[in-house]
Design goal:
The chain has helices at residues 30-38, 66-74, 95-112, 133-141, 156-161, 164-187, 210-215, 226-236, 263-272, 285-312, 317-325, 327-337, 352-366, and strands spanning 2-5, 17-23, 54-60, 81-86, 119-122, 127-129, 147-154, 206-209, 241-251. The longest helix has 28 residues, at 285-312. It has two domains: 2-272, Spore Coat Polysaccharide Biosynthesis Protein SpsA, Chain A (Alpha-Beta Complex); 285-387, no CATH class. Strands 1-4-3-2-5-8-7-9-6 form a nine-stranded mixed sheet, sandwiched between helices. 42% of the residues lie in helices and 14% in strands. It is an alpha/beta fold and 391 residues long.
């Protein structure tokens, strides 16, 4: 493994940050990725200070000039750029393993300089962060969250180039995802992740504090889906994840991706089969509403239990903490025991117009001022009536 520092190291700011970028044969894309990071601006529109963050490019298993291009372009970047080359073993060669190594290297650099309050950010080599990406991320973190998941948009020209049918499908899915996200936010509100928000956890835009990253043992080892696994592990451990609409990234929607089983494979299938099933989390609107109501009620009950135990000292703090961490376990058990909470078969694009109409009707009611807490559906089994709000 070779570590090459391409620019002069500047004084480390108090809240040190490292942007980890896994890159596999990305010689054609890495310049645009780095240029977007070079153009970061604050709320005032002025450039962020030089050296506000460090950029770590992890060029793994490259057979092209990714590393050389990144090093040559680094002289144009106002932030320190580290280019590390390595060969992952064949059995470990995956997008997930590359991102984990890149983020672990970023964590190690922060620990070496004693930046206990450090921040690890990550994006993709074929993505371009918005000009306010870093500033918007920092603003969200200052509100007390431990992780920020940004909003991902497709590169417009590439997306439109895939044809009208593919574009229409994407517009339907985006519309429905936004409606379901609002249903979730209204039925299962979380103060650290208020509406407006989204439901995506993508490695194209993630930021996590060093403390939280270490607490869960780093990025979960997954060949693909490591980004979703990260936010899930953080939430299960009691950390706060913000799905911010203000933190945005534009990413490639190429069909010849670098990761087997990744997003490119999914897009290629959907391009060939326009009515191929959607993602699993696009479930029917009424089922999604039911699940959100159940989940929100369970969360409020556990929050109330923890609060009472804390104030009355009926329960040691270790048990109170365990009660908080147990939410995910209890929710999964509740779903297993109740067929009405099963996800069912994923939707297809042809199902979405009807589901969008239903979701809009649901939200018309949820947006009304409530005189009483949201109740569970009327057909709830009697054994689950504990989910009903107290009178």
């Amino acid at each position: 493994m070779r570590d090459h520092l391409s620019t002069k190291i500047l004084a480390t700011p108090p809240g040190a940050a490292v942007v980890a970028i896994p890159a596999h044969n990305e010689a054609d894309a890495i310049r645009r990725c780095l240029a977007a990071l070079a153009m970061q601006r604050g709320d005032s529109g002025r450039p962020v200070p030089a050296g506000a963050f460090e950029i770590l490019v992890y060029a793994n298993n490259c057979s092209d000039s990714t590393a050389e291009v990144a090093r040559a372009f680094a002289s144009c970047i106002p932030h320190p750029v580290i280019v590390i080359e390595a060969q992952l073993p064949p059995k470990q060669l995956s997008a997930g393993a590359a991102r984990k190594t890149a983020m672990d290297l970023a964590a190690a650099r922060l620990l070496e300089r004693g930046a206990a309050d450090g921040l690890i950010l990550t994006t993709d080599a074929d993505s371009r962060v918005a000009p306010n990406w870093f500033a918007a991320t920092m603003k969200e973190l200052k509100r007390g969250v431990d992780c920020v998941a940004g909003y991902i948009d497709a590169e417009p020209l590439e997306l439109v180039g895939l044809g009208a049918e593919f574009l229409a499908r994407g517009r339907l899915e985006d519309t429905y995802l936004g409606l379901i996200a609002e249903i979730d936010a209204r039925c299962d509100p979380r103060r650290h992740d208020p509406w407006p928000n989204h439901r995506v956890s993508s490695g194209a835009s993630l930021a996590v504090t060093l403390r939280a990253y270490q607490a869960i043992g780093g990025l979960p080892p997954r060949p693909v889906g490591e980004d979703i696994a990260l936010t899930a592990a953080l939430e299960t451990a009691g950390f706060k994840v913000r799905h911010s609409m203000a933190v945005a990234v534009t990413t490639s929607c190429r069909l010849d991706g670098r990761a087997q089983g990744g997003a490119a494979d999914t897009m290629r299938l959907r391009h060939a089969m326009p009515d191929a099933p959607c993602d699993d989390d696009l479930e029917p609107a009424l089922r999604a509403t039911r699940r959100a109501i159940y989940r929100g009620r369970l969360r409020r009950l556990l929050d109330k239990q923890r609060s009472r135990a804390w104030h009355t000292q009926d329960m040691p703090i270790e048990q109170v903490t365990r009660a908080g961490a147990a939410f995910d376990e209890m929710w999964q058990q509740l779903c297993r025991d109740n067929p009405a909470l099963h996800r069912g078969a994923p939707l297809r694009p042809s199902d979405l117009p009807r589901q969008i109409a239903i979701a809009k009707i649901v939200l018309q009611h949820l947006r009304l001022p409530l005189s009483a807490p949201t109740s569970v559906p009327a057909d709830t089994p009697r054994r689950e009536r504990w989910l009903e709000p107290a009178a």
